Amino acid sequence: MKKNLQTAFHTRQYMLSKDFEIYYYDDRNLKKVDLHTHDYYEFYFFLEGDVSIQIGKKEYPFQFGDIMLVPPHVPHRPIIHSVETPYRRFVFWISQEYCNHLLELSSDYVYLMQYVQVSKTYVFHNDRITFNAIQSRILRLLEEMHSDHFGRKPQISLYVNDLILYMNRLIHQRNNPKSQSEEGSLYFRLLEYIEEHLDEDLSLEKLALEFYVSKYHIAHVFKEHLGMSIHQYITKKRLALCHEAILGNMSITEAYRTFGFGDYSSFYRAFKKEYGISPKDFKDMQMVKYE
Asked: Would the pTM count as exceeding 0.85?
């Protein structure tokens, strides 16, 4: 993770901003934190550490990719079991006033906040691909907040709203899975399947077996709807995930293996064709940029 995005941990339990604040913490010897509450929504995005979170009277063990949302006035605290592993996480605070502002735009922005308050479900587990998509949104928000770019303020608002809406959509889709009849056409079912299985075999032969249609029909339907082959689409999706993962400090080898590339040479050629730079040069450029 880029060091200039990191914030020294503070025990302040009130917001300086009236809308939102976000931090990246990497603590090695965190002192005990007492049970506490606050008057804003608090998101935790867990990266690493031997840590659990107490919410009310219940303790929740944490693992990589977990998201926690604690509503206002709910007591909670982290419980550090060992300091051998650094405690790394993103923390995102959103005021009730800002949530009300988003509610005026659309109730879709606050589905998750309302769901957590009603269901008392505070922790959500995610696979690596899903969490990587979330982490990439957090990183671009943090980078914009640490920049002096023209249009910085409105861009930050767009990134914040996009992150919030993405999490709302993610949990809404989990809570409201579509039936086979509701999913519509083969094309849209293919899109959903590809999105959920990018780390697996997505050959035409495999898809044909999965959807009980010929691989030629799948190829034709996809080309008709999107104007590119299904292979091109899958490659672009995988490259985007690899690009985001490398940006988030994942190793090149782990990235291309995690997101479905069978070997480095094919990944190298595809990456350089898509972005005009080799994976190694791209990673080196990021490291120099934030030294």
From this structure: no
Q: What is the pLDDT of residues 54-76, one digit of tens each?
A: 999 999 999 999 999 999 999 99
pLDDT tens digits, residue range 120-171? Answer: 999 999 988 788 889 889 988 998 998 888 999 999 999 999 999 999 999 9
Classify residue 242 by burial, with Cβ atoms within 10 Å: 0-12, 13-18, 19+. buried
CB hemisphere CA count around 270 (13 angstroms): 22
**Bridging pattern class, strands 67-70 and 20-27:** unpaired
Residue 179 makes CB contacts below 8 A (sequence gap 6+) with none
- Residue 35 tokens read as 């049970």
Nearest-5° Cα angle at 243, 251 to 289: 75
Cα-based angle 207, 211, 214 (whole degrees, multiple of 5): 70
Is residue 9 within 8 Å of residue 78, measured between CB atoms? Answer: no
For residues 37 and 55, what is the distance between their CA atoms, to the nearest angstrom? 10
3-state class of 146 per DSSP?
A: coil
Write out the two tokens for 96. Answer: 């009730």
User: SS3 letters for 163-221?
Assistant: HHHHHHHHHHHHHCCCCCCCCCCHHHHHHHHHHHCCCCCCCHHHHHHHHCCCHHHHHHH
Torsion sign across C-alpha atoms 195, 196, 202, 206: negative
Task: Give the DSSP per-residue string, 14-61.
Answer: S-SSSSEEEEEEEESSPPP---B--SEEEEEEEEE-EEEEEETTEEEE
